Amino acid sequence: MINKHYVEVKQIKKNTGLPDTYFISKFGFSPYKACQHSCKYCDGRSEKYYVEGDFEKDIVIRKNIPEILELSLSKFREKGIIGISSGVSDPYQPVEASEKMMVDCARIISKYRYPAMLFTKSSLVKRDIDLWQEVHEKAGFTLMMSIVFPDDSLRRIFEPYASSVEARLETLQAFKERGMSVGVLAMPLLPYLTDSEEQMIKMVDNYKKIGVDVVMPGGMTLRPGVNKETYFKVIEEHFPQLLGKYRSLYSENKLSGAPKSQYSKAVHQRFGNLIEGAGIPTEIPHHLYKNRMPLYDEIYILMTHMIALYDRRGVITDNLVLARKRYSKWLLDEKQYFNRRRNLSYLDLESKVMHMLNTGEIIEIIHNEKLASFFKTIILENKTFNYLTLKLEEE
Ligand code: SF4
Prior knowledge:
By secondary structure, the protein is an alpha/beta fold.
């Protein structure tokens, strides 16, 4: 039994600065606030998000999201990926079965030909598979499913009202078979419960069978307050023998909720190695954002991802870091200029970057000839950078 709270919103999220290099979205919205899935580790319970009432039962429904989305997409001057997600709700939580907000939203996104990336823990998204396929065929769509358990034994305790692991994997499979890109948000790994080599291998096997395009691993943060108390209560009830270890791991009470960094680094590295070893990238790969955003943003994201990719392989990236710093400063200035002039189209800025690549003028900004020629090949010859082989490929 839930309490529905209907509200109206004035706008959806829009990023006019540098693009988000993690979730690579430029716009974002979520039709709900608070979440029936009731994940016991959910950071959305934290006081900093001001979710009022019972997080699992008092569900805020942003009733006018479809209208606001339509109004926004009809006016936006830039293209870019729409991220449908939120740290404090799930767009396909059970209430969506009757509210059907996402049906209208998918139709609008398709109508305005925007690319989208959707994050969920629910197989209900399969209800709208035809609509998302339409979005994919017009502009590109990626389904990101959050799956952090190899099977349902622990899932039932920690994510009691989210779809079963099997149902989530089947949903990814269904989208993949329809030609859409799919990925897994493999976070948070639960310390001492799902972080063993055996558990990780099982999870990676599950992802690999489907042929997912990306798996993004991550650890568990427990912010001091309700977030940490809720999780610890579950540990006390179901795994009392682990309580001491958890208290020690999270004893620093960092505002971010991060555990001791030594643990995080080691686990992240082990899981990341297993995922990449299975031939799956751990950053949203180039082919999932190429041609789905302005090329000036594409270059910025690519540079950022390249730093992480080469760093992990032990390659010194100082020059790349410097080039990105110079490029981001230039890009921010250009965006500020663009934002102030309503008569300009983002295509003007794209043409400018294209011209700079063609003539080599971009070297004056990034001070790196090799990188300039690399981007010229990517953009002008329409190549894709493979995040595993670190080589250029034909589109
Ligand atoms: S699905 Fe996401 S938002 Fe909902 S409870 Fe779980 S972690 Fe929180």
